[in-house]
Specification:
The structure holds 2 protein chains of 2 kinds. Chain A is mostly beta strands. Chain A contains no helices and 11 strands. In chain A, the strands form 2 sheets. In chain A, strands 2, 4, 5, 9, 10 and 11 form a 6-stranded mixed sheet that branches. Chain A has a 5-stranded antiparallel sheet with strand order 1-3-8-7-6, with no helix packed on it. In chain A, a hairpin with a 6-residue loop joins strand 9 and strand 10. Chain B is mainly beta. Chain B contains no helices and 11 strands. In chain B, the strands form 2 sheets. In chain B, strands 2, 4, 5, 6, 9, 10 and 11 form a 7-stranded mixed sheet that branches. Chain B has a 4-stranded antiparallel sheet with strand order 1-3-8-7, with no helix packed on it. Classes of the chains: A mainly beta, B mainly beta. Chains A and B meet through strand 5, strand 9 and strand 10 of A and strand 5 and strand 10 of B.
Chain lengths: 110, 116
Amino acid sequence: QKEVEQNSGPLSVPEGAIASLNCTYSDRGSQSFFWYRQYSGKSPELIMFIYSNGDKEDGRFTAQLNKASQYVSLLIRDSQPSDSATYLCAVTGGYSTLTFGKGTMLLVSP
Amino acid sequence: EAQVTQNPRYLITVTGKKLTVTCSQNMNHEYMSWYRQDPGLGLRQIYYSMNVEVTDKGDVPEGYKVSRKEKRNFPLILESPSPNQTSLYFCASSITPGQGAKETQYFGPGTRLLVL
């Protein structure tokens, strides 16, 4: 059974700070890694994906992947109250199904 | 506008009354999937489809059926709903299963189901 683990939070950060969200996965064969954001009662929306070791930056967001440690993280710089949401880590291994973590709730206080 | 649509968005029903939740995508995606989301359990996959007439079970398929007769549609059928199927359901699609961007799944708005 593939597992994706995330701290449920909430992770509380002040506005303007860096939020760091972490995710570990059990399947060493995993190839693609996704971060989704989900507001309460809404559908998940993609923030970014990464499939190579290292960092990938997109605006205020940076995804970091370390396949040796089976670890993927998401950094949010200059956090805004509108970033307050649940962040879902998802992992897939090619043609296998997407496995989601249970999500980390982020609270950004003004 | 590229999108995944689901209907109905909200549904209250009674135990044993068959229901269908429709899902349609206009992006010509090969891969479609159904998830349920429950507090504390996260998103769990019910069924998925790699292409027309190709479906397979996900992690929690019991009590559900699906069909994929057309590329754009992937209905979820509950033949005899029970209260433990009360949940928030999401349909999702992606270009194709495979590495990287093509695996990105786009989600419908969700269907909130209450089974009494």
